[in-house]
Amino acid sequence: MLIPHPLLGLRDAQEFTYLGDAALLNRPDGLTAPEAFNDYVYLRDNPAGVHRELWFHEQGDRSWLIVTRNTLTHDILGVELARDVALGAKGAK
Amino acid sequence: MPEAAVQPLLALTALGGATPRKAVHGVLTLEENPGLALASLALRRGTSRPTPFGIPLPDAGGWTGRDGVSIFWTAPDQWLVAAEARADSDFAATVAAEAPGCSVTEQTDGFAAFEITASTGEAPILSLMAKLVNLDPRRYGPGTATRTGLEHMSVFVIRPAPGRLSVLGMRSAAGSLWHALETAVARIAP
């Protein structure tokens, strides 16, 4: 599988390590919202189909990517730098 | 008290030799480069891009070099600055002076550098790259540098010129990297 890195172009998936659901970026405050934090830590969606995932370019430029991928077909529908997404979400607040 | 015997203190190369190792196979030459000085350069938030040694910092995947000093991109807002035959100097201090306001870290002793040159142009280098690393050799042409895996080791693959390929790897794995490179060079060389 080749992952189209936003900065470096197509790179082999072997260079990356997989973390999981990109919802991990939105961490609730564990002190003020313990219920939400429990769900954040223990509950994960495992969709058969389109999924937003965090991938780390470990043997590369060490950037975190958000890869939108269809888990049934392995089609990659979009790739963004996680940094841009996180900073964008911060700016929107 | 008798005077202590003065031992000859010799700097050894990454492969442990007193002189850099060299292997010639057909049109390809593989050589250890013990003189390469390295320093990493990172921008801090809100600082403007410096031009150390008069070299503009290259964009993602890029390499620029001039007069024995080269700079290549390693990550967003991060670069490695390399200089030939300056490994015995405090190169990080030189870079820090050239890049005010940036974070500069000494890297010379962390890496082992190997240079591969082809006497007949780019073709042998392209087939060597295809054998060694999982990158598209056409995309990583002259003026590019990238970090990737080579036999489970992390390396920087640099293309300073059509007939040249530089590989920087972990100094502690210099022997394994040399073995991987020399085996491939010997098999590719016509």
From TrEMBL, chain A:
<dbReference type="GO" id="GO:0008115">
    <property type="term" value="F:sarcosine oxidase activity"/>
</dbReference>
<protein>
    <submittedName>
        <fullName>Sarcosine oxidase subunit delta</fullName>
    </submittedName>
</protein>
<dbReference type="InterPro" id="IPR006279">
    <property type="entry name" value="SoxD"/>
</dbReference>
<dbReference type="InterPro" id="IPR038561">
    <property type="entry name" value="SoxD_sf"/>
</dbReference>
<dbReference type="Pfam" id="PF04267">
    <property type="entry name" value="SoxD"/>
</dbReference>
<dbReference type="GO" id="GO:0046653">
    <property type="term" value="P:tetrahydrofolate metabolic process"/>
</dbReference>
TrEMBL record, chain B:
<dbReference type="InterPro" id="IPR027266">
    <property type="entry name" value="TrmE/GcvT-like"/>
</dbReference>
<protein>
    <recommendedName>
        <fullName>Sarcosine oxidase subunit gamma</fullName>
    </recommendedName>
</protein>
